[in-house]
Amino acid sequence: MIDLLDIKVDVVFKDFFGDKSSKELLESFINSVLGFEGDDLIEIEEFLDPRKMRVEVGRPSTFVDLSVKTRGGERYIIEMQTYNHEGFDKRLLYYLGKDYTEQIDYHYHQQATETEQKKKQKKLIGWQDLPKVHIVAIIDFHRSEREKNGILNNEKVVETYRFKPEISSSNEHLFNQWKATLVDLKKFKDKPLAELKTYKEKWFYLLKNASLIKEKEANALKQDPVFQRALERLERLSSDPATRKAYEASVNEHRDHLAVLSSERKAGRKEEKLEIAQALLKQGLPVNQISEATGLSSEEIESLR
């Protein structure tokens, strides 16, 4: 059995779930995570272009991992994030708002000629017709390096956030157009494959452990048709030289980025310790006590005088 690639890495994640011929994989994942059953089950009608540029404050541009439209007309944004971007939660809000409002700009009546199209364009939908937008963000990072507590506030792997009025529930319909679901893989507790009973648990297991799965575990997962197709898809990607090359480049870039972040954090902590030491010096505390309290050397503290 070929060594499987890590689905969480962006180039693999986009190819794995973004393959139009295997849309049932993304449908299964979304329906399982969000607990949709019966008439609520979604079917993907269209994969939207994820390369649509979205301007970010202080950055040239960015784009989402996956964006789809369901047969019911709703739109789903799927994001995979393995390290803590500054302002990540605000980015999710931006994506929701951008996807929601930009639909007005992409629905035009086609005129007879190209010249007429440029001169007069008629919108097919209005504000009252805008479909709902739901973002599903899969997270695999710790919000706090010190506490190692994942991103969510409790032990739930999945949390869905809705926008509701503070006081009156009578106007709830005005606030139900956006939803954001966070899937925190750090909160998913590993357990033997035989104990995984639901599609949701199996998807979490595959996302978290794909690169660690052995042949015995793969064969057990393949007993289910959905995960047989999923593993066959991942095996094809893992055996493709171009995908492996892009994967390795992405992993190296990710490692370099984390090294830079770690260096910046250490520099920030050192600066904070120096500031504390300087304040303690002004209060007249002995150098040896300041050294014990801050972890700085006597020489570093003396240099602050």
From TrEMBL:
Q: Which domain of life is it from?
A: Bacteria
Instruction: Name the PANTHER family on file.
Output: PD-(D_E)XK NUCLEASE FAMILY TRANSPOSASE
Q: Know the name of this protein?
A: Transposase
Record organism: Candidatus Neptunichlamydia vexilliferae
